[in-house]
């Protein structure tokens, strides 16, 4: 299995999603806009990091018919990775 390096932003995204996942008991309520507001980062940087995490299979991005990201959820593997990151933080 490959060892992936994560940027600080990707670590923060996974941590935030894990906290939201726990808070909402796994319900899909985390929107792309909520993530941008919570992390106070540039939208393009967050979008790029989300695509990377999605490519690794750690998150799923729900998209509108127009292709815009509507909600973001952790996969089982992503939840495991987020737990590892949370321990380190």
How many strands, what sense, and barrel or not for the largest sheet? 2 strands, antiparallel
Strand order of the largest sheet: 1-2
The SS-based structural class is alpha+beta
- The rough form would be described as globular
- Average residue pLDDT: 85
Helix share of residues?
A: 55-70%
Series of H and E elements? HHHEEH
- The oligomerization state is single chain
Query: Are there runs of 5+ residues with pLDDT below 50, and where?
Result: none
Could you write a compact summary of the structure shown?
By secondary structure, the protein is α+β, with helices and mostly antiparallel strands.
Task: Name some characteristics of this structure.
single chain, 89 residues, alpha+beta, two-stranded antiparallel ribbon, 4 helices
Describe this structure in words.
The chain has helices spanning 8-23, 32-39, 43-55, 76-88; strands at residues 59-63, 69-74. The two termini are 23 Å apart. It is built from four helices and two strands; from the N terminus they run H-H-H-E-E-H. The chain has 89 residues and is of the alpha+beta class. A two-stranded antiparallel ribbon has the order 1-2. The protein is 56% helix and 12% strand.
Question: What layout of secondary structure does this protein have?
Answer:
Elements: H1 8-23, H2 32-39, H3 43-55, E1 59-63, E2 69-74, H4 76-88
Antiparallel strand pairs: 1-2
Helix pairs in contact: 1-4
């Amino acid at each position: 299995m490959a060892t992936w390096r994560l940027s600080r932003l990707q670590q923060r995204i996974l941590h935030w999603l894990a906290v939201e996942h726990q808070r909402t008991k796994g319900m899909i309520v985390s929107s792309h806009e909520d993530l941008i507001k919570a992390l106070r980062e540039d939208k393009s940087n967050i979008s790029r990091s989300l695509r990377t995490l999605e490519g690794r299979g750690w998150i799923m991005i729900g998209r509108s018919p127009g292709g815009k990201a509507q909600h973001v959820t952790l996969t089982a593997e992503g939840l495991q990775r987020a737990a590892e990151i949370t321990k380190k933080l």
